[in-house]
TrEMBL record:
Stated name of the protein: Bifunctional 4-hydroxy-2-oxoglutarate aldolase/2-dehydro-3-deoxy-phosphogluconate aldolase
SUPFAM superfamilies in the cross-refs: Aldolase
Quaternary structure and partners: Homotrimer.
One Pfam entry name: Aldolase
Taxonomic path: Bacteria, Pseudomonadati, Bacteroidota, Sphingobacteriia, Sphingobacteriales
Length: 219
């Protein structure tokens, strides 16, 4: 089995892809350690600030030293230049808010998992043409579970993961999984501004354990 398939299987097994960005290198490392301690084995750092690349390199260093079974990916990749920079930095997979065929080609040439973001059936079709195995529905808080229910039969067998509008709530999670998603992206509802600014790592640990347990029940 290729690494690409192993990472996809790990996301499906976990049922959740936590994601965040923070300017602070120290804070980013502590959040990563907390998520790992709570049971996370696949994680997305987002390319949303000036410190994203140096912070990501540090996270890779910490992962290699302390968490060898963790898959560490990079999100918010919109350009080939960004894709190449983070591939060189050691990313295991790429997540994007858009469909960019050049980024897809870069990932496909090295057999790397590429997860593009889509909002319409046309975008989903283009993502499939570019060999997307897993598609992020984004922004899911605008589209909602009914969108997944409405289009899943048009794209039989396609794996979908909503990001945005997913909460640590059993009813919310069950609604998403019943609609047909295979996993959920979890950003600020899990790793809140308070967690990051105040260093509330025990709270994050508890929230992550709860989210993973609720997802296991909801799948």
């Amino acid at each position: 089995m290729s690494n690409k398939h192993k990472i996809l299987d790990a996301i499906l097994e976990q049922g959740m892809l936590p994601l965040f960005y923070q300017d602070s290198e120290e804070g980013s490392v502590e959040i990563l350690r907390t998520l790992y301690k709570a049971g996370v084995r696949v994680f997305e750092y987002t390319n949303r600030g000036k410190s994203a690349l140096p912070n990501f390199k540090k996270l890779v260093e910490i992962r290699d030293a302390e968490m060898p079974d963790l898959y560490l990916g990079i999100g918010t990749i919109k350009t080939p230049a960004d894709a190449n920079a983070f591939i060189q930095a050691g990313t295991d997979f790429i997540v994007a808010p858009i469909v960019n065929a050049e980024v897809a080609d870069i990932a496909n040439k090295i057999n790397m998992l590429w997860i593009p973001g889509c909002m319409t059936p046309t975008e989903i079709s283009i993502a499939q043409a570019n060999k997307a195995m897993l598609i992020k529905i984004f922004p899911a808080n605008i589209l909602g579970p009914d969108f997944i229910s409405s289009i899943k039969d048009l794209f039989a067998g396609q794996l979908f993961m909503p990001t945005g509008g997913v909460e640590i709530d059993e009813n919310n999670l069950k609604t998403w999984f019943k609609a047909g998603v295979c996993a959920v992206g979890m950003g600020s509802k899990l790793i809140s501004k308070d967690v990051m600014s105040k260093g509330l790592y025990e709270e994050l640990f508890d929230s992550t354990k709860l989210a993973l347990a609720l997802i296991k029940k909801s799948k």
